[in-house]
Amino acid sequence: MSPPPGAAALSDVQAEEARRRLPIDEVGVRGLRLPLRVRDRSGVQHTVAELALYVDLEARRRGTHMSRLLEILNDEALVLSVAGLPALLQRVRQRLQAGRAVLEARFPFFVLKRAPVSGAPSRLDHEVRLRAEGAAGRAGRPAGGLAGCRVEVSVTVPVTSLCPCSKAISAYGAHNQRSHLRATVRLGGPLWLEELIEALEAEASAPVYGLVKRGDEKHLTERAYENPKFVEDAARDLAARLAEDPRVEAFRVEVENFESIHNHSAYACIRGGAWAGPARDARGGDARGGDVRRDGDGGKER
Question: Options 3.40.50.10840, 3.10.20.120, 3.10.270.10, 3.30.470.20; which CATH number does 109-273 get?
């Protein structure tokens, strides 16, 4: 922007030569809390996000232009979606004349659910974390991932778990509790957040709802009783499901049960795809001959 007529030109200090010629990997803004529109399968929903936006900085330049990053994040036309991340990061790189751009976001994502018997509607919130990195590849070509953009998405879903051991040894009833299933995935193709949420819910003893009536409560109690799972069972079943999705390049599955008869949580974690541990191959198969792919017994073992 040109200064008004008669005004003295202001120094562009950021454009000065750096005293120490060291490139910077990431520089920008973080801890920014803003209203945000997020695209979902039904259209667009409004939420509030904590955001960070960074670019790299070449060795000769003293500073980047922080205000330009804030202009992009405050753009009223901005709608966040997985499919739109490559274009957004390309815009950031061009605006800042950078070779690399990184966006981080954390926000609640709401899903409208209907109770299984009464159909009563209610919204359930899920914690979403997102990190997207875009960089130009050699000869100007994009480098890997989702259209030249590496995208990692993490979703935490509240569910119900019921203990198989408690059910097997008790004359009646079984202890159950609320649990968190979390999947962190690196994407090679567009994926709706709702799809990931549904995949997690499908591997729980039972889902949870914001609003239920008595008929719904009976249904959910009986569903959990007929589908008991240890944290190990849920982690294996979810890992098997994600291993089959060609859009998922890598994943980390975490299951935490907030135990109702203990003063501690039970926890399990599986990494697969490109994040597989040393005992597993690139798609999560066990080097000793096992495999995380889905099988007839659903991976239920103890």
Answer: 3.10.270.10
